[in-house]
Each structure stands twice: as C-alpha cells, then as structure tokens.
Write a structure and sequence with these properties.
By secondary structure, this protein is of the alpha+beta class. The protein contains eight helices and 14 strands. The protein has two domains: 111 residues, P-loop containing nucleotide triphosphate hydrolases (Rossmann fold, 3-Layer(aba) Sandwich), CATH 3.40.50; 105 residues, Nucleic acid-binding proteins (OB fold (Dihydrolipoamide Acetyltransferase, E2P)).
Length: 266
C-alpha cells in the first residue's frame, strides 16, 4: 500500500465514504508535515517519516487515547529528538491523551505531563516530571530517573544523617534515631570545594567532558561519588564535598526485594 492507502486503512474498515477518507488523508498529512506524499511507498521514506505515517494512520481514526509503545526506539538520537518535539506538538494540537511507554528516562521527562514509574508491574510513583526528578519516593525511582548517588546511611536524628561516617545536616524528620536509611544525592547538587572546606574530602578519579558540564567521579570515604559541575577538577586533585541540606533526600530502606517492588498504590 502507498502512503494514502496506509492512512486510509482503518477508515475503510469502518466503511467511511471516499470523500470523507480523502479529506482525512489530507488533514493527517498536513498535521505530520508530509503533504504531497500520498502516492509514495513507505519504504521510500526515512525512519522518521515512516513514524509520522504510522501516527497519521492512528490519528485519522480520532481516538480518545493514543497508546505509543516505544515509538522512537529504532531511530537515531537526532531523529528521535526531532520526533519528540513533533509528538509534543501533535499532542497539544489534537488534545488527545497520549499514553507513552518508554525505558528512556530523558524521553519520559521531556515529553510527559504526568509520569508513572513502574517496577515489576507495580507503581512506584506518579507525578509531574519535576516532582519525580526532585522528590523521588524511593531509591528505585531516584536511580531510574536521572543519575543519583544512593548511599547506605544512618539517620542519627531529625535533620542529621551520617553518610559514610560523616555527619550531614538535612531537612528530613520522622525517621527515628540511629535508623538505617537510603540517602539520595543528585550529581549536580554536590559542590566541590577545597579539601578542608568540605564535610568529607576525597580525590578525583575520573572525568568526562559532557558539553554543558563535566562529569567527575570522586573517591571519598570508600565511595565513588558521581559529580556534575561546570568547573573542571583534574584527575588526582584533592577536593572536599559539600551538599546543601535541602538537596539530601532521605528514604526508608525496603526490608526485601519484594517490598522494594511493591508500593502502596493510591
């Protein structure tokens, strides 16, 4: 089938009239920026264009909900990013609810109004991209969405946690005293300072330039900290680590792997 026949497939099954189908084909092709492609064959199109035709074929049926299961997984990075913007535009123009399944965390953060993070079939957290990233409800969510330092620690008392033998001020309360917890600290929330100015000190062991920031690994108190900073510290340099109390997330440790997967679903 050519492009027009592909798009019309669902409408023909519904026994829509030829004039109705022709109007819908023109509308759908305009919507996905492929006007004039009616008589082309799918194998003559690029990967991104083929994805647009698949979306057009679904849109003409006027669904209330559109399920997209890893729709951009086979595309290269640049094309995938372009299609993300196209899908956001289509969602806004059409007013259709998109249920978008993806294992790409960045894609989920970029495209979603609401994210549902799942583990072994159980819902771990539901929220906006901002709340999911900044306030993960457990270590699984923190590790799955973005980079994180997840450290086995001890909640000494309210607003004070012991991380790798050092005391850090935090803002969390209600965990009890001397309780084992998971601490989550995002790489961009770690400040590297002079060794004597840090809560703990260590040595830079690895560095990668990522364009907008440097990604560094710092070995401190037996733990390899992942750090993102716009300032470069060379491998071998001694540094101190500081973290604002508001950027330290405290979480209860699950008693088992099953408990880690099963969370209360509201």
């Amino acid at each position: 089938m050519n492009i027009a026949e592909n798009i019309a497939f669902g409408l023909k099954i519904k026994n829509k009239s030829k004039s109705y189908i022709d109007d819908k084909i023109k509308y759908a092709l305009k919507l996905v920026n492929l006007e004039g492609y009616e008589n082309r064959m799918p194998d003559s199109l690029s990967g991104g264009q083929q994805q647009r035709i698949a979306i057009a074929r679904a849109i003409v049926n006027e669904p209330k909900v559109l399920l997209l299961d890893e729709p951009l997984g086979a595309l290269d990075l640049k094309l995938r990013q372009d299609m993300q913007y196209e899908l956001i535009r289509l969602k806004n123009e059409l007013g259709i609810t998109f249920i978008y399944v993806t294992h790409d965390q960045e894609e989920a953060l970029t495209m979603s109004d609401t994210i549902v993070v799942m583990n072994q079939g159980y819902i771990q957290q539901i929220g906006t991209p901002e709340s999911i990233y900044n306030e993960p409800e457990n270590a699984f969510v923190a590790d799955f969405i973005g980079d994180s330092n997840i450290i086995d620690s001890i909640m000494v008392r309210d607003e004070l946690v012991e991380i790798l033998g050092a005391k850090f001020a935090c803002v969390d309360k209600g965990f009890g005293e001397n309780v084992h917890v998971d601490v989550v600290i995002r790489p961009e929330d770690i400040e590297l300072v002079k060794p004597e100015e840090g809560t703990i000190s260590g040595e830079v062991t690895h560095i990668i330039f990522k364009g907008v920031h440097y990604e560094m690994e710092v070995m401190a108190n037996g733990f390899e900290w992942l750090v993102h900073s716009t300032k470069m510290y060379p491998v071998g340099e001694k540094v101190g680590i500081k973290v604002d109390p508001f950027n330290i997330q405290i979480m209860n440790k699950p008693a088992s792997e099953d408990e880690e997967a099963v969370q209360i679903e509201e």
